Amino acid sequence: MSASLSRPRVGVWLIGARGSVATTVVTGCAAVAAGLHRPTGMVTETPPFTESGLPALSDLVFGGHDTLDCPLPKRAESLTAGGVLPPGVATAVAAELAAADREIRPGGPTPGDTRSEAELITAFADDLRDFLHRHELERAVVVNVASTEPVSQGPGAPLPASTLYALAALRAGCPYVNFTPSEGMHHPVAAREAERSGLPHAGRDGKTGQTLLRAVLGPMFAQRALTVRAWSGTNLLGGGDGAALADPAAAAAKNAGKERVLADTLGTVPEGEVHIDDVPALGDWKTAWDHIAFDGFLGTRVILQTIWQGCDSALAAPLVLDLARLTARAHEAGVSGPLSALGFYFKDPVGEGPSGLAEQYGELLRFGRSLGEADGEDRGARAVRGTEKTGGAL
């Protein structure tokens, strides 16, 4: 392919860039791009998206913000020791981890930080612009993978950090994806700025395990005319997420998305709650249990129980890569506003769309096809620009 038709590199700016999810994203992207592992869990690597014009994994450039100072290679070593990353992979992609780590800038606000909200937004946006300029990137997608924040205190309260980062993304002209339950672009201040900017954005709260099952099982009960009486759940998890969700306010933000999926797919909210328990000994591993009571024919009570055991970082990483690629391509294609077609990935999607996973997947496929159609137009435009530059025919 000639230089004039080659696809540009794309930035992926991670909020919480030294956390478990971000480390797994960077490590996994490098490992898959190098052919060391298959792209398991990446929907964008399946045949329906071959012609969508998505950026290649090898063309993604990583950077980000974090308040932690543990280098990515060291964090990857820890995840390897915990069984999250396979042995040898972090060593094989050490250069890529080190390169990404050099692009991580101090986040905030931190204890004792005297900068105003306006100053923080300006500093974060300047970091993004510098990243774009130094790497000669046409665009970068900002993805929030930081720990869950408590629910906002409402009007007059300080803006949550996730919203400061979202506003910085908009100021720097970058699309934004909120993979967490934190407020981010949902805050009224950011929502108004997002509407004015016209930039594509998606979120919130990635659908990785327990809620993924709920998005499948909820429609099943509704379609089979089975009345769900109670749906209770428990999450046992450790690591940074476990510590963050030990705060009842943060747990409430997390559970809101889980409850919304049931309300939307069942048409009602059954009895029962989801409990989240911090178990530090589990590290980055999680167990999620659901107990579902429903009525069969003639009111016969039936019980379904599910157990999901896994590592959230490994479940989330392929989704983050999918979202970064799809959002970057949407930005390139001139798509603006909330990307409701990406509801397949979220507990609490932006915009209007179905709640059942099968219907959401259908919307995602249609979106992928539309990006492919736009890519044909883009290729033609790039070809014309290439001819203009060389002064001759291709």
Write up what this structure looks like.
This protein is α/β, with parallel strands linked by helices and 394 residues long. The protein has a six-stranded parallel sheet, sandwiched between helices. Strands 8-7-9-10 form a four-stranded mixed sheet. Strand 4, helix 6 and strand 5 form a beta-alpha-beta unit. The longest helix has 34 residues. The chain is globular, with a radius of gyration of 21 Å. The C terminus is likely disordered.
Concise overview:
The protein is of the alpha/beta class and 394 residues long.
Spell out the blueprint of helices and strands.
Blueprint: E1 10-15, H1 20-33, E2 60-66, H2 72-81, H3 89-92, H4 94-102, E3 104-106, H5 117-134, E4 140-144, H6 161-171, E5 176-178, H7 188-197, E6 201-203, H8 210-223, E7 227-237, H9 239-245, H10 248-266, E8 274-278, E9 285-295, E10 301-311, H11 312-332, H12 357-390
Strand content: 15-25%
The number of E-state strands comes to 10
Task: Average the pLDDT over all residues and give the rounded result.
Answer: 90
Main beta sheet = 6 strands, parallel
How would you classify the helix and strand content by structural class? Answer: alpha/beta
Mass-distribution shape: globular
Task: Characterize the quaternary organization of these chains.
Answer: single chain
In spatial order, strands of the major sheet run 3-2-1-4-5-6
Q: What is the overall number of helices?
A: 12
Distance between the termini: 12 Å
Q: Which regions are unreliable across 5 or more consecutive residues at pLDDT < 50? A: 382-394
